[in-house]
Amino acid sequence: MDTKIYLSSPHMGGTEQDYVNEAFDTNWVAPLGPNVDGFEKSLESYLGKGNHVAALSSGTAAIHLALILLGVEKGDEVICQSMTFSASANPIIYQGATPIFVDSELDTWNICPNHLEEAIKDRISKGKKPKAIIAVHLYGMPYKVEEIKKISEKYEIPVIEDSAEALGSSYKDKKCGTFGDISILSFNGNKIITTSGGGALVSRNLKHKEKAIFLATQARDNAPHYQHSQIGYNYRLSNISAGIGRGQMEVLDKHVTLRRKMNQFYKNIFKRKEGINLFSEPTSNYFSNHWLSCILVDANICGFSSEDIRLQMSENNIECRPLWKPMHLQPVFKDAPYYGATISENLFKIGLCLPSGSNLKSKEKVKINDVLIHFIDN
Ligand SMILES: *Cc1c(COP(=O)(O)O)cnc(C)c1O
């Protein structure tokens, strides 16, 4: 049998190993060093002037520190987009706070501005103003940046921009990862670039970067001995991982182009079939890195479901996956308040993520094409 075709797998560009070797040669085998500094500089220059980056051990750690920097404490409430990966919401619980989940809208599949405002008003009327809003650019598609910012400013609630899936995306030519009061990135193995595991906290406020690094290195006070006035974490990125990141930054734009080509590849396949809609930018203001290409399948029109496609692909050793299951439907969050209707629930029911890696070979694309077309036409 052919080797498995994955949804999204690591794609090395070539120079990663040079940076890693340099770390070995100079014995910088630690959670600090020249690669960590160099990776941060590279991300700062990519995101543009005024952005400060702290390289961390994961995107989850970055969200956790963002909550701490915004003063989220036990008993507080934090609003979070319901349709997302659990890592967006878990750190709210780490802080002893309560997640308030909000439904998506259909244009971007991200947090719905109307339900967001409804949630804020209702929580305030119940006596608690939410401490932060976690908004996510799912699959690389920017959320409704202007609408969310307006609401954030109106109610004076900061936004944590979860840009884990959207490095390389932009809205009105401004890069994702620069829209939140604090933004986060992920370099997990399946993301558009990887450090084999890692993340970053991004802010326009230099103090945020400094405080994040302080907390990520065990919150050590300035003293010759080990002195601590607050609880710290071991969340810094290793210099080995950061070396991989420096190499990956050299191919990021190429990866974006290749992922967008994969989206075009699926557009050509699915144009033949009514009832299958490829997730696409709602207007030309939106530029998605198309981290994953996704479809919605209307079984009433097609006569088959997204799950039927997934099973057929799986039989051919091609990995597909349902969309993120909304957090308000997850057993672990069953008691959390929820605002919205059934948009995210329906997207979950009829959606599917397709193999989207920047490293898919021509032979693999031919196979994907053949299996899909054969299934659709029969
Ligand atoms: C991957 C991901 C994260 C978490 O990043 P890690 O680096 O895996 O901890 C957070 N949010 C979203 C939306 C993600 O896809």
UniProtKB/TrEMBL annotation:
Enzyme class: transferase
Superkingdom field: Bacteria
Record keywords, A-Z: Aminotransferase, Pyridoxal phosphate, Transferase
Cofactor entry: pyridoxal 5'-phosphate
Pathway: Bacterial outer membrane biogenesis; LPS O-antigen biosynthesis
Entry's family note: Belongs to the DegT/DnrJ/EryC1 family.
Protein name: GDP-perosamine synthase
Protein species of origin: Aequorivita soesokkakensis
Lineage, uppermost ranks: Bacteria, Pseudomonadati, Bacteroidota, Flavobacteriia, Flavobacteriales
